[in-house]
Structures are given as structure tokens and as C-alpha cells.
Amino acid sequence: MKKVFLFLSFCAFFYAQEISNTLDKQNTTEQTAPQNLKEDKQENVQNKKGNIIIGIFSGINTLTTKNKYFNQLTELKGASHSTNSIALSYGLKIGYDFIIKPKHILRFYFDYSGNNFFDQASSKAYLNALFLNLDYRYGLIDLLDLFVGVHANTAFLNTQNYAQQVSFGGGINIGFIFNILPYLEFETRMRFISDSLSPIQASLDREITATNRKVEFGDLLNFSVGINFKF
User: How many helices (H) does the chain have, and how many strands (E)?
Assistant: First the structure.
């Protein structure tokens, strides 16, 4: 999944640059008056150093867990299986945009995400995470921007039946920003989250004859939408 996510991220970024270059070539055929207005707008952006960003977002998380069953020290291959869990996620962010050029922006921000997994009613799990992000944002057109970035995270897993734990990790961000108003953005984001959650010893299922069961946590994939306010 990591390699696929990286490949899609780079493809999206380079493809977006090709689209932008094509649009730039088309814009050279515009009349002098509209071009002067565009240059004035770019000059205003250049004079501005950056923006404070405050935003809220919501979405879903997917998490793959591997359930391994053992008879003493021997794994029961036929009984072991994987489970995909889905969580409702929500959060908020605060950061700053460093405007390098009119179409090139570095966004440095901090965000919090809460996740409520509901795949198993008998054992609820809550995942709270803190992220430190750096995104490179590229303006495709006035209305639409593409961003690709990286993050470091700290995750706190709290389960109903098992011990709590803390993990550290990193990942990749990719998404689009729609510039609705000068002070308002609509954002769609896909985030790959790699963590270091430790396996846990879980209770046994009645249907499977084994001496112990171990649950291993995979990486997370997050899809979210949100709004950002610029100051």
C-alpha cells in the first residue's frame, strides 16, 4: 500500500504541473488588458508574505488488523485472518502559509485528529493523534491548488478491553484546495499514516480452538474534507 500511495502521489503532482503549464501557455494568447489585471493580482500576492490558517475537518479512517491464533508457540495458519476497521474522524488545524511565489506555497501546520472505531461493538477503540505537517502547495488555476506533503505523528490508542499505548510515526499528505473566497478554502485530503503500534494479546474467539490470540495493527489511510480560514 505504501508504494502504491507514493506512486499515485507523484503521478498526481507531475500531472498537475503539466496541466498548469498547458494553461499558462493558453493564457499567453489573452488580450493585453486582462493580462495586466492578472499581473497586478500576482504582484499583490508577491507582496504578501503569508497567511495564518485555522481549519476544521471530518472524514473516515481505515485500519487493517491481523488476527493471529496460536496453539502454544505454533501459529494456526488456517485460523489467522485480517480485518478492516473503519473509523469516523474529526479534527482541527492551525498553521501558516509561506508564500514563495504566486503559485508556490509552503504550508506548515499542526493538527489534531480523533477517531472512533465502531467495527466491533464488544470492543470499541479510540485513536487520538497529533500531527506536525509540511505541505508544498502548487496553484493549478485561481480556483484550484494541489498539495503534497509529509508529516510526523504521535498516536494514542485507547481500547475498551485492552491496554492503552502510544506510538510514533510519519506519512504522506496529498489533496486539493478550492479557493472559494480570499479568506476561505475548501480542502479534500488523503493521508497515509504509518505508526508503530505494538501487537496486543487479545481474548480468544469461541469458534476457534487455540491457546492465545495476537492482534497486529497495520497502517492507516485517512480521507477527509474540511474548510480553512485565512487571516
Answer: 2, 10
pLDDT, average across residues 215-225? 88
CB of 195 closer than 8 Å to CB of 217: yes
How far apart are alpha carbons 75 and 173 in whole angstroms?
Answer: 36
CA distances from 66 to 77, 85, 119, 138 (A): 12, 11, 14, 38
219 vs 44, higher pLDDT: 219
- Distance, CA of 80 to CA of 133 (rounded, Å): 36
> What pTM, to 2 d.p., does this model score?
0.75
Instruction: Show Cβ contacts of residue 127 under 8 Å, excluding neighbours closer than 6 positions.
Output: 61, 63, 87, 114, 115, 117, 155, 156, 157, 158
Q: How confident is the model at residue 75 (pLDDT cuts 50, 70, 90)?
A: confident
Q: Which residues pair with 26 in a beta bridge?
A: none
Closest CA to 228 of 178, 175, 172: 178
**Sign of the alpha-carbon torsion through 189, 190, 192, 193:** positive
Q: How far is residue 82 from each of residues 64, 67, 85, 158, measured CA to CA in Å?
A: 7, 6, 10, 20
Q: Is 30 left (phi over 0), alpha (psi -120 to 50) or beta?
A: beta
36: helix, coil or strand? helix
